[in-house]
Amino acid sequence: MTTSTDRSAEPGSAAGAEASLLGFLASRTKKDWDADTDLFASGGLSSLFAMELVVYLEETFDIEIAGADLRLDNFRTVTRMVSLVRRLAGSGSA
Amino acid sequence: MPETQAAQTLAVIGAGVMGCGIAALALGSGVRVALLDIDEGKLGQADTKVKRHLKTAQLMSALPAGTVPGELVTTTSASGAADADLVIEAVTELAAVKAAALAAISPVVRPGTPIVSNTSSIPIDELTEAVARPEDFLGTHFMNPPYLIQTVEVIRGRRTGDEALRRLHALLGRLGRTAVTVGDGPGFVTSRVLHPMINDAVRVVEEGTAIPEVVDALFVDCLGHRTGPLRTADLIGLDNLADSLHVLYERTGDAGCAPRPLLLEKIRAGDLGRKSGRGFYDYGGPRS
């Protein structure tokens, strides 16, 4: 379940975005993940879950992920997602 | 003989899970889509749903690169299908509801325009009386989500003409799908075999033999299936699965097709699978 803490996550803070994402993953998959684990590698998550990650990131950090950014590789690890969020949130407020 | 030209404009009847998914597949392949539904509320959400499907398809690299998406038009009027080159009806999996939708659309479209009922189990010949020109009528069984599954089960009814079949194959080719054509009958091939099997997977959970995760792990890890039966049930939608099982049970009398009590209990609780956020698995949806 998404908590109010998730909603107030600071996109400007990499640590805040990382904690938010790890919390979301833990609540949805009932297991803990490392920030650099490949989520879609063998034994990991279904690739369909990537779309849930897109929706979560867009709603939580008020960003839009479109065009060339919509690549599975951008969602493969928490670290990569944090980079994407920071880049999109940064360009959105510029 | 000249090649049959693929449809330029597709009308999709029904803005539910399958209707929106099929619309997204066509739009992503550059085909114009008229999406019809009698429910204005559902139609209002369709644009957002279709866009989300298109994003998923792009994320999975399931769309042809560099294709300009087709135009989406939504309407509550049957006349919205008048200029379609092919119509796919994808309303609720109930024979009477499908027959009513087909009867409303059939007089509007030009003769020679294939009218396709997308169904997981209702025999095409049963619905033929609803359309004005049986030779233009046939069936598909798209799997969910349509843009991620390469092959489409195509059902040829007893009165389906060759040209309708050719035109449907041409459209599916343009959408990058492979058509596999089968004869008519309750559940055709895939649902007739798969749905009673999923029902039995529900039974073993009900009887306490194994939890859903264990049932699915055996199918994936021992039998090499890509997805286990209960996760597949969640993807189909538990209500759609039960509707299909009812169709099979009523028409075959096969007791293995009578929907299991646990399946019906979940539906009553509003746990319909992935689309409601909860089914045999939790997808983060609201607890009902």
UniProtKB/TrEMBL annotation, chain A:
A Pfam family: PP-binding
Domain Carrier residue range list: 8-89
Molecular function terms, GO-annotated: ligase activity
Keywords, ordered alphabetically: Ligase
Domain of life of the native organism: Bacteria
Listed name of the protein: D-alanine--poly(Phosphoribitol) ligase subunit 2
TrEMBL record, chain B:
UniProt domain 3-hydroxyacyl-CoA dehydrogenase NAD binding: residue ranges: 10-184
Keyword Iron-sulfur: no
Domain of life (superkingdom): Bacteria
Keyword flag RNA-binding: no
Transmembrane regions: 6-27
Keywords, ordered alphabetically: Membrane, Oxidoreductase, Transmembrane, Transmembrane helix
Residues annotated as domain 3-hydroxyacyl-CoA dehydrogenase C-terminal: 187-283
InterPro entries, per database record: 3-OHacyl-CoA_DH, 3-OHacyl-CoA_DH_NAD-bd, 3HC_DH_C, 6-PGluconate_DH-like_C_sf, 6PGD_dom2, NAD(P)-bd_dom_sf
Source species: Kibdelosporangium persicum
Pfam families: 3HCDH, 3HCDH_N
Record pathway: Lipid metabolism; butanoate metabolism
Stated family: Belongs to the 3-hydroxyacyl-CoA dehydrogenase family.
Record-given protein name: Methoxymalonate biosynthesis 3-hydroxyacyl-CoA dehydrogenase
